[in-house]
Amino acid sequence: MGTPLDSREEQVVEVLDRLYEEYPDTDISLDFSTRLELLVAVVLSAQCTDERVNDVTEDLFEKYRSAEEYADASEEELAEDIYGITFHNSKAGYLKGIGEILVAEHDGEVPDTMSALTDLPGVGRKTANVVLQHAHDVVEGIVVDTHVRRLSRRLGLTEEERPEAIETDLMGIVPEEDWRMFTHLLISHGRATCTARNPDCADCVLADVCPSEKGDSEIDLDSGEPW
């Protein structure tokens, strides 16, 4: 079993140092060129792969270039335009509602506060954090997606289960200057090595400090289940 460092603060610094070296060019994998495009892409990415989102938004962003155009479209048309996205019918409603609120309350622009963003349909704290960080260069927290949840628990950085509680816990131990990159580093490592079903512990740069390392550990600390 890997042996974590003595404190969670030391553990997270070691994890960051190794992952920065392993993934020096990691960043957001959604394609966008405007703040509105980013907001739409992140809303669509919930429970859907970034690859699928990028495929769908290539044409979507050619057709819809403003909040007004989303507001004026019917939900049926939007659902057809994002067909292939998970829960496309519900997300079509979100996009129309977002367009309407942006036009009515924000002059068609994407707001730059957590409260205003989370008032939009389909936008929770995770989505708002992504938009703030990448559209406005405002870092208020840590984006906790499925990769961040899985890896932070496996690595012994948190025992919390809900994304909001995990975020609060991590914000107490991750240096603030690393909040934004922490997410991208864990996502990259989660995709490349520490996958959900069959992590490649034998080829993991964190294996010797990971308390879930399956060569010796009997338990996956994320799921609580035996390997």
From TrEMBL:
It is an enzyme of class 4 (lyase). Residues 44-192 form the HhH-GPD domain. One of its GO terms (molecular function) is 4 iron, 4 sulfur cluster binding. Its cofactor is [4Fe-4S] cluster. Keywords: 4Fe-4S, DNA damage, DNA repair, DNA-binding, Endonuclease, Glycosidase, Hydrolase, Iron, Iron-sulfur, Lyase, Metal-binding, Nuclease. GO terms for biological process: base-excision repair, AP site formation. The keyword Nucleus does not apply. Its EC number is 4.2.99.18. [4Fe-4S] cluster binds at C194, C201, C204, C210. PANTHER family: A/G-SPECIFIC ADENINE GLYCOSYLASE/ENDONUCLEASE III, ENDONUCLEASE III. DNA repair enzyme that has both DNA N-glycosylase activity and AP-lyase activity. The DNA N-glycosylase activity releases various damaged pyrimidines from DNA by cleaving the N-glycosidic bond, leaving an AP (apurinic/apyrimidinic) site. The AP-lyase activity cleaves the phosphodiester bond 3' to the AP site by a beta-elimination, leaving a 3'-terminal unsaturated sugar and a product with a terminal 5'-phosphate. This is Endonuclease III. The gene is nth.
